[in-house]
Amino acid sequence: MSKPYNNTKATLALAKASFRSIMRSPSAVVFTLAFPLIFILVFGFLGRGGVKVDLAIAPGSDLQNPIVKALEQISVVHIIKDKDPAELKTGLEKGNIDAVINVQKNIQDAPAYLANVQYTSASIDKGTILKSVLNNLMYTLNSKDIKPSIAQLNESTVQGRVYRTIDFILPGQLGFSLLSTGVFGTAFVFFSLRQTLVIKRFFATPVSRASIVFGEGIARIGFALCGAVFIILIGHFFFHFTLIHGIITVLNMLLLAIIGLIVFMGFGFVVSGIAKSESTIPPISNIITLPQFLLSGTFFSIDAFPSWLQPISRALPLTYLNDAMRKVAFEGAGLWDVKHQILIMIIWGIGVYAVAVKVFKWE
Amino acid sequence: MDKTNAIISVKELVKKYDDFTAVKGISFEVYENEIFGLLGPNGAGKTTTLEIIETLREKTSGEIIVDGYSVDKDANKIKRIIGVQLQAAGYYPNLNLVELMELFSGLYGVDIKPMEMLEKVNLQDKARAKYKALSGGQKQRFSIATTLINSPKIIFLDEPTTGLDPQARRNLWDLIIDIRNNGTTVVITTHYMDEAEQLCDRVAFVERGEIIALDTPDNLIDNLINSGFERTKEVKKANLEDVFINLTGKEWREDN
After folding, report:
1. Which residue of chain B comes nearest to A26, CA vs CA?
2. A18 contacts on B by Cβ (under 8 Å)
3. Architecture of domain B6-248 in CATH?
4. Is B103 within 8 Å of A13 when comparing Cβ atoms?
C-alpha cells in the first residue's frame, strides 16, 4: 500500500482493454475498414477507364477507309459495329450510343470519302468531345500532303505524375473512416460505459478520470491508425495510390490522421453527453458526419459544388483534413506546408472540446 | 481480535436529494474483521449510505472515517484499501474474465495473477468466458473476485445474493466467511434475514434513512422474545429450505 499509485499503468491497462474490445466489435471494424475499402474498390475500378465516347458505325457503311481506321486508334472513341438500324435508333434516343457515323466512297472524284455523323441530344457532352475529335482527325487527314500556309502546330505532352481517381478517393475515404470512428466509436463507448455502470465500477477504484479518457483515446487512435495503414497499403499496392516520399509520406499522413481523429473524438464526447438514449446516438452522430461526408470533398472536389455551397464546405474540419492528406500524399507536401489546414483543425478542436467539457456526463 | 477497534466510523450522516432526504443523520461504527450487515426495505437508504462510504457519492453533511482516512480529504487513499461490489455494475464489454482481471489489476495498480483470483471464487473453468455469458451466481462471484484484487482491508457487498438459488446463496456465504477469516472486514446489505442471521456478527436495521436498531442478531432476537413476542406457528427443527438443500444437494452447480 505504501507504493505510490501509478496513473500510467492504469491508463495503459484501460487502453489495452479498450483496444481488445474494439477489435472484437463488429460495428467498429465495419465502419473503420469495410466501408472505406468498398468505396475504394468501387472507385478504384471505376476510375480506370476515363472518358469513352460510344460511336456506332452505321450498317452499310464502308469499313476499309482511313477515317474508320484512324478512329479505331483513338483511345477516347469506342467503336460499336454490327448494330441494326432499329437498335441504333433506340440507342441514340436513350444516349447509350453517343453518335453514329456512316462513311461512303464518294462517287465523284474529290473528296474521296463522305462521312455523315449523327449526334444525339441525349448525350450532348460526349457528342461535343467527339465533334472536336473528328474535326481534329479530318484536319490531319485532309492536310496530310499540304504545307500549312500560316502556322504549323507542334504538340507535345510533358511526362508528369499520373493523377488517378484513387489519389483523390483514398484520402477522402481515409478522412471519412477517421470521422466515423472518432464520432460514432467515442459516442457509443462512453455512453454505454456510463449506461451499463462500467464507469461507476471504475470510480470505485483509484483510477483518475483523465486516465479513463486518455486510455480510451489511446485505444481508439491506435485502432484508427491500424485501419489507416491498412487502407493506405491496399490503395498503394492494388490501385497504385501515389505516395511521393514513400514511408515519410505515410508517417505524415498518420500524423494528420491523429490530429483529425482527436478533433472528431471531441464530437463523439459531445454526442455521448447530449444523447438521451442509445437509439438517439446514430441520428445525432449522422447530423455531424453526413454533411461532412457529402460536402467535404470526400467524393467530389469542392470546386465542383455551386458557389453558394462552397463556403459551407470550407467551414468543415473534414475538408481541411482531406485537403491536407491529398497535398501530403500526391504533392509530397510536408506538415509545415499544410499548416493552414492543421491550424483550422486545431481551432475546430478547441471549439469542440470547449463544448464537450460542458456537456460531457460521467454518471 | 479486539472487537471494539472501529475501522469505519459514520457520524451524523445526512444525504439530501433535491426535496427528498434519503439519509437522516445516521451514526454507526464497523469493527475490524467483523461482518457487518445493513438491513432494511428497498429505498431505506442502505445503498446510498454504502456508496457514500465508498466515496462514490457526495454526502450532504456528517463525518465518515475509513481506516483513519476522511472521505472528504482522502477519497483516493480509501479507494485503495477497499473493495466494492455494486448492486448493479457492468464490466467492460467483449472481454473475458482473465482480461477483465488484468484490467482491474491495472486500475488498482497491483500485480496479481488473474487465474489465482478466479480460483479463489471457483471460476477458473470460466476464465475464457465473457461476463455476459455467466449465470447469476457466477456473476456475483466474479464481482466479489474483482473486489479482492487490491487485497483490501474492507469489502462492501451490496445485495450479493439477490436473485440466486439456495445452492448459489450458500456458496456465497461460505466464500464471504472465508474472506472474513482471511482478515478482511465485510460490510453487506441484504433483504434476507436468514442470511443476516447466519453471516453477520452485528446488524443495523435501516428504515426511512434512520437506524432503528443495531446489535448482534442474537441480542436482537433475545430482546424481542423478552418483550413477550411469540411466533404464531410453532417452529419446527427444519424449514422448507433445509428440505430443498437436503433433496437437491449442497454442491456447487455447473451453472450457479
Report:
1. B94
2. 92
3. 3-Layer(aba) Sandwich (3.40)
4. yes
